[in-house]
Fold:
Amino acid sequence: MLLKKFMPVISILCMLTVNNYSQSEKNIIYLSWENVVDLSLTENLGLKSKLLELETQNLEEWRSYSSFIPTFSYQGLATKNLELPVFVFMGQRFVVGTNYSFQHSLDLTLPLYTGGARWFNLSIQKSLKKSLSEELKGKEEETVQSALESYYLIMLSNSLLRTSGEAVEVAKQNLEQVEKFYNAGTATELDLQRAKAQYYSTLPQYESAKSNRYLSYQRLKSILNISLEDSLSITDTLSKKDFLDQYNGMSLKEFKTIAAENRNDLKSLEYKLEATEEAENISLGSFTPNISLSANVSHQAQMDEANLAWSDYIRSKSIALAVYWPIFEGGKKIIDYQQSKIKTDQMKIMLKQAKDISELEIEQSFFSYNESIKNLSSLKQAKIQSEESMRISNLLYKEGITTQLDVLNAQLLFTKSKTEYLEGIYKYNVSQLALLKSIGMLETIWN
Structure:
């Protein structure tokens, strides 16, 4: 009875113990922007999948080499003839064959000429391997860019959360000040209502900043393949970071020249174009004959009983040169060749389209970066001026010189200008990442 009485208490204590133990198992991961780059390159699941795809293509290349090696095979055959053929000649019956037959053979086959298909296929697999290698490099840049953008978004969300918290605190202090003046009869009912409205309007923004901060952490964990239950500790603060280095100050034309030589997506498509052109040659090679050499060593035994010895086998050897040349197959070869040419034309169009898109991407990134430079300077001055304006407005209101509406406007302007300045720093940093990626040189920040 006593045990039953204390059972609920024991259960609660056990649950708390398990919960505390599970919480103690959570990891705290400290991150700098260099750590983010390293983890994104080694732990991202998308990159791991792309790497496996490249390894698979490497095996395909080795498979193409194997087509130059002779095929060597063994065949063993044991036959029990249930009914032997019987011939009748001049009234006499002749049974042909034996009840059992055994055979062991070794066969070697070597294609001598296949219309160049083996060489063209090898060239195709090499081109596809190079294409996938460029895709992997492009995926690395894409992953690092996404990870760093998320990393700086965390710092931005932390800063915005502090800013919105400060806005709540300032609005609260203003409300308390107005309430004192209102109780003393020096502030109007309208002043009090405005102060309350200002205070309560800051609370949703604060809650929104908390949610965005949480989601930004979770997004970075997902990119870096970190458990969503772990905690991240960011060692950097939101500040200007110069990623362009030697590319800073280059013209748009120079950026486009660099991109034409280094963009991984363009290189990948160029290698794919080479592969489709080689596929055309395979189609043309199908119009030529195939020549192959084969050799055979066979041991056969024909027995009426299942008991046999190795001496019962009869050995035979043969070598053959075969020419296979299908003259007409209903136009199938012509259709295959036409289809291969169409695929080549499609790949050329894709490459041209990719070049046009890349130029547009470079232009957008270039102008976005230059815009962020100019805006950041203005936003910094606006923040300084609005902060000073808010300080003066508060002092004048305490002296009774200005109205409470002026204080509210100054507070709103300061919160808005500080938020825009923080966002300006974020845009300045990520615009550099986007510009480096657009020219295919984002890898310079980790190499």
